[in-house]
Amino acid sequence: MKELKAFFTKTPTGGIFLALILVCALFSSMTSRFLTPTNISVILNQVSVNAILAFGVTFVIIAGGIDLSLGSLVAVCGVVVALLSQNNEYSLWLAIIGTLIAGIALGALNGIIVVLTKVPPFIVTLGTMTIGRGVALILSKGRPISDLNESLNFLGNGDLLGIPIPILFLVLSYATCHILLTKTIFGRYVKAIGGNEMASYVAGVRVNRIKLYVYMISGLFAALAGILLTARINTGQPNAGLGFELDAIAAVIIGGTSTRGGKGTITGTLLGVLFIGVINNGLDLINVSAYWQQVIMGGIIILAVVLDGLYQKLKMNI
């Protein structure tokens, strides 16, 4: 019992983990269709794109920044991979690698502008969000791109040993980001910059370089999310990704990452994504109107952040 109490009070993800358990218990009591292997697989498959986006932007937020261009990057990269995959003109690997490079380049653009101009990241990425949406429309000429490589479709809808491919990408992305943030010097520098940028600079950390890298990471994972989304719907949609940045950032914050930077975990982000995904899935199963779902979700996000603040104060007093 003491070990359980210590887990919920001492670990940074204890609060959201408990909230996730309670929400799962609630929906399980309301419908027998919720806690089944098939539905669990559906939830993981549905949240895979948002999870991958959220993993990338976690680095940006921990470093004290923000990236509002995520949804637009998903659209641009989705259009790019669709153009490269159309009519089997290029190999699948060339299309994927080209798209990932495009995502890194777009993320680097955000980072370079933030670093060189010292303009707040909120303003910079708000501008690139609009630019990215326009670029997606220009590249696609405002129309969906179809006739894609069948191998690309497999990435979004196929499975390996019975496990959907998007879930495998989710697991691989989680493991990569978790190791990068917790087991490397780079991860320590990211947290240090978010905690105290000036002190990090005085200590010899190359602050501008680390800032550039976190935006490149965010762009890389936005590109991967764009590839999976395009593969799932089998078309390149220039209007894809609308609102995705809000879902990803909400998951990161619900997962315990501080909006002021310096604190956060990839595990917390994963739990935040699952929390949102479970609620959306559960509300669908109990036939709650899509209109009311938006109201409920917004309220839950606010409540979750408030409760997390109270939970952190409680931990400090224990």
Descriptive keywords:
318 residues; two-stranded antiparallel sheet; mainly alpha; ABC transporter involved in vitamin B12 uptake, BtuC; 76% helix; globular
Compact overview of the structure:
Helix content is 76%, strand content 1%. With 318 residues, it is mainly alpha-helical.
Task: Describe the fold and architecture.
With 318 residues, the chain is mainly alpha-helical. It has a single domain (16-317), classed as ABC transporter involved in vitamin B12 uptake, BtuC (Orthogonal Bundle). It has helices at residues 2-10, 14-30, 37-62, 70-85, 92-117, 121-140, 150-157, 165-182, 185-195, 197-202, 207-233, 244-254, 266-285, 290-317, and strands at residues 159-160, 163-164. It has a two-stranded antiparallel sheet with strand order 1-2. A hairpin with a 2-residue loop joins β1 and β2. It is globular.
- What is the terminal-to-terminal distance? 16 Å
Which regions contain 5 or more consecutive residues with pLDDT less than 50? none
CATH class, named Mainly Alpha
Helix and strand composition category: mainly alpha
- Mean pLDDT, nearest integer? 89
According to DSSP, the number of beta strands is 2
CA radius of gyration: 20 Å
The neighbouring-strand order within the major sheet is 1-2
CATH architecture annotation = Orthogonal Bundle
- Strand percentage lies at under 5%
Question: How many individual helices?
Answer: 14
Which overall shape is indicated by the principal axes computed on the Cα atoms? globular
Biggest sheet overview: 2 strands, antiparallel
Elements, N to C (H/E): HHHHHHHEEHHHHHHH
